[in-house]
């Protein structure tokens, strides 16, 4: 094997290794303060629990906000939920802040997004942390492990359009 062929083969292997490593990093859930993984387990609500509350009528005590894509909200959302803007953007956080500003800090709030797998969601953690910083003591994040379609719609839970 000539030196040139050896060098080119080695470069291709290095490039392939780097691309694989980058793909593994991109596939890893994001961690840190902006990650859904930063939300305490005690602040998570399971979809079955919220569905049960909706079915029993107990959800009338909740204020439910969708903090993700407007397009997703327009396609299907939890009945009674209010669109609050994508919390990954400053404008979305400001919309959420404006919607909750006058609420009593003891109000039971549930936020959800469901745009993508939990560990990759850019919206849920900023919304949760904003509510927490504002002093809301009963704010919960709806834990949608995969996405809204898989973890809510496909389970037959109620939706509105």
Primary descriptors:
five-stranded parallel beta sheet, 2 domains, Oxidized Rhodanese, domain 1, alpha/beta
What does this structure look like?
Strand 2, helix 3 (70-75) and strand 3 (82-83) form a beta-alpha-beta unit. The protein has a 5-stranded parallel sheet. The model is unreliable at 2-29 (pLDDT under 50). 41% of the residues lie in helices and 12% in strands. The protein is an alpha/beta fold and 161 residues long. Helix 4 (90-100) packs across helix 5 (124-133). It has 6 helices and 5 strands. It folds into 2 domains: 1-29; 36-155, Rhodanese-like domain (Oxidized Rhodanese, domain 1, 3-Layer(aba) Sandwich), CATH 3.40.250.10.
Strand content range: 5-15%
Q: How far apart are the first and last residues' alpha carbons, in Å? A: 64 Å
Roughly how many Å is the radius of gyration?
Answer: 20 Å
CATH architecture level-2 label of the largest domain: 3-Layer(aba) Sandwich
Counted by DSSP, the helix tally is 6
* Count of individual beta strands: 5
What's the helical proportion of residues?
A: 40-55%
Overall body shape: globular
List SSEs in N-to-C order. Answer: HEHEHEHEHEH
Structural class: alpha/beta
Output the CATH class name of the largest domain: Alpha Beta
Average residue pLDDT? 85
Low-pLDDT residue spans? 2-29
**Strand line-up of the largest beta sheet:** 1-5-4-2-3
CATH topology of the largest domain: Oxidized Rhodanese, domain 1
CATH superfamily of the largest domain: Rhodanese-like domain
| Biggest sheet statistics | 5 strands, parallel
Count of domain modules? 2
